[in-house]
Design a protein that fits this description.
eight-stranded parallel beta sheet; about 30% helix; single chain; about 220 residues; about 20% strand; alpha/beta; binds zinc ion; binds D-xylitol-5-phosphate; globular
């Protein structure tokens, strides 16, 4: 599976160092968690910070928008250097228009589901997304415990993608590490967001290698 490290729990005083750390692990992209303090009970960063990070790495930016009305800022995130833009259907954004806007800007589009949102919520859009992100914790904070009851949701989305012969990745976000990654791969996920497990690992490159070797 591919690995997308989340820098949410990193040292924000040394973002250049943290980006170099992510590159050195051999990860495939960087997961950037944008939080507005309304959609989720936490605040992080926005387009100006992402624009400053952009020249520090050649890894693709996987931007996860945990915010209300994200459609208002798609242009700003695209211009800041996002390669893939994840937004929530629960955010109040007009879904079709927002997906079209992301793709019209030459970016990959993904829909992200909170734990309470059923798999079927993404089915009408599967032919218009590059990826579906299944939250395996309540969005807002790193370091939470993986919700095992999200496994059937991952499996349901994977079987619908395969049934329709579509080329859509499934990413999982929250509580992913050595113990939980095999479970999500088994259910049909192929991209892992890894935050605290990577930043706290004694051997981050070995962790990325072991995730790459799954599935
Ligand atoms: C949570 C964020 C995640 C988070 C993952 O709301 O969307 O990307 O940083 O962190 P871990 O891997 O520590 O659960
Ligand atoms: Zn995230």
């Amino acid at each position: 599976m591919k690995v997308s490290p989340s820098i949410l729990t990193c040292d924000y005083a040394h973002l250049d160092r943290e980006m170099a750390f992510v590159e050195k692990t051999g990860a495939d992209m960087v997961h950037l968690d944008v939080m507005d303090g309304v959609f989720v009970p936490n605040l992080s960063f926005g387009p100006p910070v992402i624009a400053r990070l952009r020249p520090l790495t050649s890894l693709p930016f996987d931007v996860h928008l945990m915010m209300q009305l994200p459609h208002r800022l798609i242009g700003a995130f695209a211009d800041a250097g996002a390669d893939l833009i994840n937004f929530h259907p629960e955010s109040g954004a007009p879904i079709d228009e927002t997906l079209a806007d992301i793709r019209a800007r030459g970016k990959k589009a993904a829909l992200t589901l909170k734990p309470a949102t059923p798999a079927e919520a993404v089915f009408p859009y599967l032919d218009r997304v590059d990826m579906v992100l299944v939250m395996t914790v309540e969005p807002g904070f790193g370091g939470q415990a993986f919700m095992e009851d999200m496994l059937p949701k991952i499996a349901a989305i994977r079987s619908e993608i395969d049934r329709r012969g579509l080329d859509v990745r499934i990413e999982v976000d929250g509580g992913i590490g050595e113990a939980t990654a095999p479970l999500v791969v088994q259910a049909g996920a192929d991209v892992a967001v890894v935050g605290s497990a990577l930043f706290n690992s004694p051997d981050p490159a070995a962790l990325v290698d072991s995730l790459h070797a799954l599935g």
